[in-house]
Amino acid sequence: MALGYKYSWSDMINLIESWKDIARENSGEFKVVNVHSFANNDDPFLRRFEITIPFLDGQIFIITTEFKPLKIYYIFNKVIADEFLIYEEDYADKIGKLFGATDIETGDVDFDKKFMIKCDDDGLLKKVLTFDLKKFLLENYVANFKLENANESSTLELNVAIIELDKTKMNDVIRLFKESVEIINDLKSFS
């Protein structure tokens, strides 16, 4: 692996085959998009791998590149009343807590120790954070997991570093993400 690339050429071939299977198994689509890279002038393009899976009344989008972690998101065609942000607590957050910064606690000591949680109302969050989802988040590096509003829609997004070549891991994250989308979609608390 050179210049910060996550995968070798043979790994990318394996990723493409695995992701094609995942897309097919979920009645979705897979594509590879060449995008301009500012990180590598010798190879001005990098590949972005995308899966689109139809789900409920929208689509789940799964994206990764040769450099960035996995991004999975779903856009609700309505505004959800609550928003949340979960991310791994760092040193600055710990210092902030010493000076009075607060976050939401779930009651799960291991989870609360690892993550900062911001939200207006923790009712939705407690429903979304199932045992299986908390376990998954604890076992993987999570850049963030968030639900945010924009104009007339809300987006649920998970940015996580997992082994994207591992079909079992990919299927787990898709299953857990679908469960979260269903929980939020079933709520009657829309703006």
Give the topology.
Layout: H1 9-25, E1 29-36, E2 45-55, E3 58-65, E4 70-76, E5 84-88, H2 91-98, H3 109-114, E6 115-119, H4 122-128, H5 131-139, E7 141-150, E8 153-161, H6 167-186
What can you tell me about this protein's structure?
By secondary structure, this protein is of the alpha+beta class. It has one domain. It contains six helices and eight strands. It has an eight-stranded antiparallel β-sheet. A hairpin with a 2-residue loop joins strand 7 and strand 8. The mean pLDDT is 85.
- Return the domain count: 1
Write the element-wise H/E pattern from the N-terminal end onward: HEEEEEHHEHHEEH
Strands, total number:
8
User: Mean pLDDT, as a whole number?
Assistant: 85
Distance between the termini: 47 Å
- Which secondary-structure class do the elements indicate? alpha+beta
Shape: globular
Count, helices: 6
Largest sheet: 8 strands, antiparallel
Query: Strand sequence of the main sheet, in spatial order?
Result: 1-2-3-4-8-7-5-6
Question: What percentage of amino acids are in beta strands?
Answer: 25-35%
The low-confidence parts are none
Radius of gyration over C-alpha positions, nearest whole angstrom: 18 Å
Helicity, as a percent range? 25-40%
